[in-house]
Design a protein that fits this description.
The protein has about 325 residues and is α/β, with parallel strands linked by helices. It has a single domain, classed as Alpha/Beta hydrolase fold, catalytic domain (Rossmann fold, 3-Layer(aba) Sandwich). It has 9 helices and 12 strands. The strands form 2 sheets. A 9-stranded mixed β-sheet has the order 1-12-11-7-6-4-5-3-2, sandwiched between helices. Helix 2 crosses helix 3. The protein starts with a strand and ends with a helix. About 50% of the residues are buried.
Length: about 325
């Protein structure tokens, strides 16, 4: 059963600064970890003035890389006293392997990232998982299987793959199945078939809802070599992925951050996820899917920090 943690009219007491923290406030360390023969890479941000800090493990959404905003988020978490580990899934960023957006594969990456952080000296025992969009679904699925997670933050989470079947047109679904099958067949001969990750409304892309093109593009650094394309087989896997079905098994406190104007992950599905989580808080704000990275960055992060502080009993 979810309970409202805060509303736009009742913000959390502790404020997060809007400006980017000074690099002198934290130290960074590159960490690698192996997953099924491939090396994943992440960056650990550790506050300089906190002994044995609790740690937040950060993972991104659909086909996104850690430097699409997770680095900025990790800096702010370190600035308020948390260690933060932002990692890339296999095939993305500096991580090795094939860039496949498959939930089961990325959940394995999460599991390995969590194990890697557990092995780092001079960190506290507390561990929180933070995920956004598709990653917001992953943290629920991971926490449902493990008992060493103390808190979960799911920002605008992808919670129910069946929502795709309800929100997309029959024409889109037919094209998605055709593209996914084509990619699987191409894989048999060492090739691939890609679709766009984001596009304008009406364009065939994984994310083509209003606001997806501008919102996603704004996350990509100017010097990034990332390309707007992903293996089409992901379109076959996502409708079967339902983190909401795992939610009742999560034993730790969870925060769900939802946008009431979100057209990528409609509010009713995130609201249902919060209801299914046994110990959850819900923050619902009048924003779209990508607004928490821009106009509402400080506000949303302040809610998340307030939740983490409450879980870890920090003043």
């Amino acid at each position: 059963m979810s309970a409202p943690l805060a509303t736009p009219d009742r913000p959390p007491a502790r404020r997060v600064r809007g400006e980017r923290p000074s690099p002198e406030r934290f130290a960074t360390r590159r960490l690698t970890f192996a997953v099924e023969g491939d090396d994943c890479v992440g960056t650990l941000y550790r506050p300089r003035d906190v002994d044995d800090p609790d740690t937040v493990v950060l993972g991104h959404g659909f086909a996104a890389e850690a430097d699409f905003g997770l680095d900025r988020l990790a800096e702010h978490l370190a600035d308020v006293g948390y260690a933060a580990f932002a990692f890339d899934y296999r095939g993305f960023g500096d991580s090795g392997g094939e860039p496949l957006v498959l939930p089961s594969r990325q959940i394995a990456d999460w599991e390995a990232a969590l194990d890697r952080v557990r092995g780092v000296d001079a960190l506290g025992d507390g561990i929180a998982l933070w995920g956004v969009s598709l990653g917001g679904g992953h943290v629920v699925s991971v926490a449902a299987e493990r008992y060493d997670v103390d808190a979960v933050v799911a920002r605008t989470p992808f919670a129910d793959g069946r929502s795709l079947l309800r929100s997309k047109s029959p024409r889109y679904l037919l094209r998605a199945v055709g593209a996914g099958v084509r990619d699987r067949l191409a894989g048999l001969v060492g090739r691939s078939h890609e679709v766009k990750v984001y596009g304008r409304p009406g364009e065939f892309a994984a994310l083509n809802e209003p606001g997806a093109l501008d919102g996603y593009a704004a996350l990509i650094p100017r010097d990034s070599t990332w390309q707007n394309g992903t293996r089409a087989r992901a379109l076959l896997a996502l409708p079967r992925y339902r983190p909401v079905a795992d939610a009742s098994a999560v034993t730790c406190p969870a925060l769900v951050v939802a946008g009431t104007e979100d057209q990528v992950v409609p509010y009713k599905y995130t609201d249902r996820l919060a209801d299914e989580l046994p110990d959850s808080s819900l923050v619902a704000l009048p924003m779209g899917h990508f607004d928490a990275w821009d106009d509402r960055f400080t506000e949303v992060l302040a809610h998340e920090v307030a939740f983490l502080d409450a879980v870890f009993e920090r003043a």
